[in-house]
Amino acid sequence: MTAAIEARDAALSFGETPALRGANLSVATGEIVAVMGPSGSGKSTLLHCLAGILVPDSGEIRFAGRRIDTLGERERSLLRRDTFGFVFQFGQLVPELTAAENVALPLLLGGVKRAAALAQARPWFDRLGLTGLEGRRSGELSGGQAQRVALARGLVARPQVLFADEPTGALDTLTGEQVMDLLVTAAREQGTTVVLVTHEARVAAYADRQVVVRDGRVNALVAA
Ligand SMILES: Nc1ncnc2c1ncn2[C@@H]1O[C@H](COP(=O)(O)OP(=O)(O)OP(=O)(O)O)[C@@H](O)[C@H]1O
C-alpha cells in the first residue's frame, strides 16, 4: 500500500551539523505515529522535511507516493496550505485575532469567504470544550485552551496529514493528556494521518506506533 507520508534515506545538514543522516519513515494513511528521541537527535528536522518545510540535501520525501522534495517552494507552500495541518508547542496563535478567527485562518488562507470560514470554525469550539471562548484573543486564554484552539486550527481544513511538534510541551500533564485525547479522537474521526514529535513517553503512548530518532536516523521503538 502507498504510504501517506514517507522519508527515504533523508539526509540534511545545517552547515557542519548533520541533523538527518539517512532517515527512513513510512506512515500509513490514518496512522498516528509518535517520533521520540533525545534532544538534538533530529526529530523536528525530520518533521519539517516530511511536511515540506525543509528540503533534504539527499534522499526523498513522498506524499501519497509522489515526491514533494523536488517541488518548488511555491508548490510546497500550496501543498502545506491545502493538504497538511500543523500544531506547534506554543500554539502560535495570531495574537491580534480572536480564537474563532485563528481557527478559521487556514480556511481564509485557502480562499473560503469569511462568514463561511467562521461558520466552519464554530463547531470546533464545542467539540474541543471551548464553548464561549470564540471571541477571546490568545492573551485571554489559558495554555491548555490556547493549545486546543491551535489544534482546532490544525484540523479545521480536514488536512490529510497533521504534523504536531511537541503539541503538549508547554502544558502540565493533565492538560496535555486532554489535548492528546482530543487530537487522537478528532484525527481518527477524520481519518487524518498524524506525525507527532514528543519527548514524553506518556504522550507517545497515544500513537499507534512509536519510533525513535537517534543521531539523525529512525529506529523502531524497542522495549527496554
Ligand atoms: N536552523 C538550524 N540551524 C543550525 N542547526 C540546526 C538548525 N535546526 C536544527 N539544527 C541542529 O540540527 C540537529 C537536530 O535538531 P532538531 O531540532 O531536529 O532536533 P530535535 O530532536 O527536534 O531536538 P529537540 O528535542 O531539542 O527539539 C541539532 O544538532 C540542532 O542543533
How are the SSEs ordered, and which strands pair?
Layout: E1 5-14, E2 17-27, E3 32-36, H1 43-50, E4 58-63, E5 66-67, H2 73-83, E6 84-87, H3 99-109, H4 114-127, H5 143-155, E7 161-165, H6 173-190, E8 193-197, H7 201-204, E9 209-214, E10 217-220
Parallel strand pairs: 3-8, 3-9, 6-7, 7-8
Antiparallel strand pairs: 1-2, 1-4, 4-5, 9-10
Bound molecules: adenosine-5'-triphosphate.
The site of adenosine-5'-triphosphate has 12 residues, from strand 2 and helix 1.
Counting DSSP H or I runs of 4 or more residues, the number of helices is 7
- Under CATH, the topology can be stated as Rossmann fold
| Distinct ligand kinds | adenosine-5'-triphosphate
| Whole-number tally of structural domains | 1
In N-to-C order, the SSE pattern is EEEHEEHEHHHEHEHEE
Give the beta-strand count: 10
Give the second-level CATH assignment, the architecture.
Answer: 3-Layer(aba) Sandwich
Task: State the share of residues found in helices, binned by percent.
Answer: 25-40%
CATH class label: Alpha Beta
**Order of strands across the main sheet:** 6-7-8-3-9-10
Largest sheet: 6 strands, mixed
The low-confidence parts are none
Strand content: 25-35%
**First CA to last CA: what distance?**
31 Å
Query: Mean pLDDT, rounded to whole units?
Result: 92
- Integer-rounded radius of gyration: 17 Å
Q: Could you say which structural class the secondary elements and strand pairing correspond to?
A: alpha/beta
User: Shape, please?
Assistant: globular
CATH superfamily: P-loop containing nucleotide triphosphate hydrolases
GO molecular function: ATP binding
Pfam families: ABC_tran
Domain ABC transporter: 5-224
Keywords: ATP-binding, Nucleotide-binding, Transport
